[in-house]
Specification:
Mean pLDDT of chain A: 82
Strand content of chain A: under 5%
Oligomer: heterotrimer
Radius of gyration of chain B: 22 Å
Largest sheet of chain B: 4 strands, parallel
Low-confidence stretches of chain B: 106-117, 119-144, 380-384
Number of strands of chain A: 0
Structural class of chain B: alpha/beta
Chains: A mainly alpha (178), B alpha/beta (384), C mainly alpha (311)
Number of domains of chain B: 3
Number of strands of chain B: 10
Shape of chain B: globular
Number of domains of chain A: 2
Strand content of chain B: 5-15%
Helix content of chain B: 40-55%
Distance between the termini of chain A: 59 Å
Order of helices and strands of chain B: HEHEEHEHEEEEEEHHHHHHHH
Strand order of the largest sheet of chain B: 2-1-3-4
Number of helices of chain B: 12
Structural class of chain A: mainly alpha
Amino acid sequence: MDAVVFWALAAGATVLAVAVFVVDSMARATFALLGSFLLAAGEIILLGLAYLGVVIVVMMIMEMVIMAVFMVMYMMNPAGLMPMSMVHNQRGALVIAGGVFAALAAGIFLIPWPTQGTHSSGADATFDLGKVLMGPHMLTMMLLGITLFATMIVTVSLAAARGRYDRLGDDLEGGSRQ
Amino acid sequence: MGVTMRLVGLAARRPRVLMAAMPGATECRLALEAGLRRRGWAAVPSPAAADVVAACGQVPPDLAGPLAQVWSEVPEPKAYIVCADPPSVEADLDRVAGRLADPAGGPGPGWAASQPEYACSQDDGMGMGVHGGSGHGVDGDGGMEMPAGLAMADRGADRDGLKLDQLHAGLGPFLADWPAGLVLHLVMQGDIVQEATVETLGATPVGSFWNEPWRQAAAGGEVTAGMAARRLAACRLDGLGRLLAVAGWPDAAGAARWLRDELLAGLPTTDAARRFGRLERRVGRSRALQWATAGVGVIGGPDVAARYQGWLADIAEAVAALDDQTPLPGSALVRSLPVPAPGELLAALERAAVGAEIGAVRLMVAGVDVDLDEAVDPAGVGGG
Amino acid sequence: MVVETAPLWAVLVAPALLTALAGVGTWADRLVEARAAGAASRPEAVLTGMVSDAARLLVAQRRATLAPDRLMWRLGVVVVPVAAVLAVVVVPFGRWAVDDLGVGVVWFNAMEILTWAALWAAGWGPNSFWSLIGGYRMVVQGLAYELPHMFALIGVATAAGSLQVGTIVAHQRHLWFAVWMPLGFVAYLLSVLGFSFTKPFDQPAGADLSGGVLVEAAGADRLVIAAGRWLLLAAGAAMAVPLFLGGGLGPGLPAWAWSTLKSLAVLGVLVAARHRMPTIRLQRWVPVAWLVLIPLTIVQVLVAALVVLAR
């Protein structure tokens, strides 16, 4: 049963990934990519990593919607009506993609995968994965996350010309609001 | 078949009406709004949501085209009425309900399962209908194959110094909660207005319904100050209802319009004062409404928040004067505040819309509460 | 166990219960609005109006605009109610949930975020200026409510030490989370109004855009997206009960009765909020969300973490 689901998700993810380059609109390409990610998240859930899988769903929807906005903004004219090709520098792209695929596929066969049973606590695979990935650096990583987040907010709010100046006036002491 | 007809019958019990307000026909619009309220029918903001198009007043020749455009965007089964005579609105509404319940007898191409979708007729790209769905730039560069025959968008400098696509769109003339006969042609970049041009359609020589008592007094008729106060209060409540509807507060808008109609129907002073007090507490003290409208408005003039507070003050004053039996002097002005004439208001609107977000533009238009019918009122009457 | 995974047939019952809750909400909402405007407002007349509306949308044609992206449009419309139904998979009704997933809270979060994508696609699809602006407004709204929403959920999960809704309910045996995490509760309720694009956070479908993402939706499309909106609101109200109000726990009555009563109460509060104020413009709201709400909800998470450490 698991095998059937695995192959169905894998096939779906691959088809949608191909669709990213076949469709002629940025909106559709982005949503095809989103669909591919969602099916890949299904594979992760199938591995027993429910938390990681669902978090991928959360993150990918947010990111792809925002990516759609940017893609349309930069690429399309007029507003997505013009069909456009999703591929350029085809030969170079194919070489890079093929190389990366070969490297990752080789990795699958070269890595000494743990056999079942070495899983220590046995209770929660997500917990174990977190410990393996982060080890004793969990607190550092958490702090880093918060710092990055704060930096992003501050950078954007300082950089946006039409942000606080628009709202608070040139002297930043309130004033013109539209 | 049986099930479908049952559903059609059920649907016809509560039609959804798109009101197309015509210039010079305020009375018809008020009668229709009151009729809808009595029946519990809803007025809707877009053709796709409607099944009845109700023209409020006779359709002037230059509005027939836009009206046909709107009609073509309403899904079948649908029906169309012209309410040109306020007393017969009830009969009109009965007739339209009957027509909806029996779609075979109605106007339009007839609907069938073979027509699962409907398309709007392609307009000239200026978006004269309620929405300018297809209004991409007008200067097509010939030669290239464009999807659906649409032209490439123009580009223009935006406020941040980038070069962005421009879209030509239009607001009006048949937009819900919008002054009758007004069209605002817009050049948009995203949801920001780059250019705005006003056009007025369907001008009539009738004069504004709201200035009627003053016109009568000027013509030597016997009008009391109380009658004029009643009309002024109703006028301000009409503007308030429109603003509240655009601001997305249908409850308060409905309450304002209900009180307006009751006042025009002769609501006694004590009831009027009590009910207005309730509305004033609700709207006048709403911090959310203040927050949404402060700082939005015509450059150099009061913002929308100040304007609706002014209207509330006007209404309070007028409601207190409902029983005033002194005769109205023939030279009286309609508004207690000096308001510029419609032409000046529209020019100010064109300037203020530039650089504003489309939602703010809707609030601005509702906030100036322009009545194009006033343009033909003789000088001295009304005052705009 | 406070919450158990129900037998398989609950898959059919949960959407029915959600629809019933949404129906009650719609009915109350229309009743209040009709009363305020002096319109025909007998309770049974309002119910007839709902039936009539549904009937009309079932028989009316759907709309075909000029050069639409039909696939994206239909996909966006359909995902709205689907997201709501999938979200309630983890919401317990009394003792029973369709599936009390170990990552229930994150699952709910993921399904709610689907509305971002759905509304953007539904706004994009018709090739209509007004609906496109509506779709973009939903993204802006999402960026405003999402982080406070997540921090509210993280606060709850931290306090309970689990992402499982059943465990979260069990931790409120003595004290509801709403009592000692009021900021998180308020932020959560605001985000429910946000993701169901319900007034006062209805700018994506705003009156100033003649209906925004709804402007071109006719017939079945309109029925699906309008119903989906209410299903989302009902799902959000129902989820507030296990997260903040102790789920089915309570004296005297059986658990399902407490769940029902509490869900209706939360829905009542949300419907009341709809009528209290006009639409909040995103231009005004986004700065408040980022500069006030996000810091406050982060402080709320910190409080939850300190309480857990002290226990």
